[in-house]
Design goal:
This protein is an alpha+beta fold and about 130 residues long. The chain has a five-stranded mixed sheet with strand order 5-9-8-7-6, covered by helices on one side. Strands 1-4-3-2 form a four-stranded mixed sheet, with helices on one face. This is Glyoxalase. It comes from Actinotalea ferrariae CF5-4.
């Protein structure tokens, strides 16, 4: 069964060097290995493949999400802002926005795009209760 095996998020980009600068310098990810025509990053025990493709940025939904503990969220949002990341806002029932941060039922999230328009998210888990 597929549930017995790890899954790997895969992001297409148009310019691998530009993508590497974003994922390494802006997001702070470290390369975990090379792949044919791409690079693999390791984040929280999960591999993320970034590779060049003519179809880069065509997905208009969240491509990858990073789940942060509540006590790390504000610092990470501030760090990304300092590195020039612009957060997106959109209409969705139940979301309340404050300065680019969405809140919903005890969770907080931000969405932003990489240089190719791939949408990334960082968020907190639902509040225990």
């Amino acid at each position: 069964m597929l549930s017995d095996f790890p899954a790997m998020p895969v992001l297409a980009v148009t310019d691998l060097d530009r993508a590497r600068r974003f994922y390494e310098d802006t997001l702070g990810l470290s390369p975990g290995g090379e792949a044919p025509d791409g690079v693999v990053y390791r984040a929280g025990g999960v591999d993320l493949l970034v590779y060049p493709s003519a179809y880069a940025g065509t997905n208009k939904a969240t491509a990858v999400g990073f789940q942060l503990p509540e006590d790390a969220f504000d610092d990470e949002v501030a760090r990304l802002r300092e590195r020039g990341v612009d957060f997106q806002e959109f209409e969705m029932e139940g979301l309340t926005w404050r300065d680019g941060v969405a809140e919903m039922e005890g969770m907080r999230s931000v969405w932003f795009a990489d240089p190719d328009g791939n949408i990334l998210n960082i968020g907190t888990p639902p509040a225990a209760g």
